[in-house]
Amino acid sequence: MWNERYAEDDFAYGTAPNDFLVEQAGRLPEGQVLCLAEGEGRNAVWLAARGHTVTAMDGSAVGLEKAHRLAAERGVRIETRCSDLAHFEIAPNTWSGIVSIFAHVPPDLRRRVHRRVVGGLRPGGVLILEAYTPEQLRFGTGGPPVVELTMDLATLEDELAGLVFEVARERERDVFEGRYHQGLGHVVQIVGRKSEGD
């Protein structure tokens, strides 16, 4: 599915970074940033332009090829890793920042990934996450077609135990990102920091 979607000439979700990431990126410490399920690279390239050392991972080689092309157009460099999230190893205590923007996967896999995320952050490292909630299915403006792939705040607070939440909310907001996110939606937004003592 994703190779087919990213094979389109246009960027499926645009080339501009996610609004919530732009709003919160100042919280990211200096150092290496990992972008999960990054697709065509819009967030990774923007972070690289801000001076971060960025690795973009995604299961679609087609998407990551476009990410490299976008990085070249913007005059920045990113690393990419082509891997399914189920098999992607997040090395412990490695990342200053991890970014998860609309990375919707089945619940069992999501729980495993989120435990790896908490473990993978360095002390003081920050997770920035935005995802659609179950309420999004009423809006029909993008996101997963089934409730099982959505996320809610209570579940995320449990799955991301070990982080101190600087932002943790559900809200309605306009999301205009390429062809596939178009209009008012219902999202959950998280900024979580791993405590310095961990």
Note the main attributes of this structure.
198 residues; 7 helices; SAM-dependent_MTases_sf; alpha/beta; Rossmann fold; methyltransferase; transferase; 7-stranded mixed β-sheet
Describe the fold and architecture:
This protein is of the alpha/beta class and 198 residues long. It has one domain: 3-Layer(aba) Sandwich (Rossmann fold), CATH 3.40.50.150. It contains 7 helices and 7 strands. It has a 7-stranded mixed β-sheet with strand order 3-2-1-4-5-7-6. α3 links the parallel β1 and β2. α3 packs parallel to α4. The chain is globular. The model has no long low-confidence stretch (mean pLDDT 95).
SSE topology sketch:
Blueprint: H1 2-6, H2 19-24, E1 32-36, H3 42-49, E2 53-58, H4 61-74, E3 79-82, E4 95-101, H5 107-120, E5 121-132, H6 136-139, H7 153-159, E6 163-177, E7 181-194
Parallel strand pairs: 1-2, 1-4, 2-3, 4-5
Antiparallel strand pairs: 5-7, 6-7
Helix pairs in contact: 3-4
Provide a concise account of the structure shown:
The chain is an alpha/beta fold and 198 residues long. It has 7 helices and 7 strands. Helices cover 29% and strands 32% of the residues.
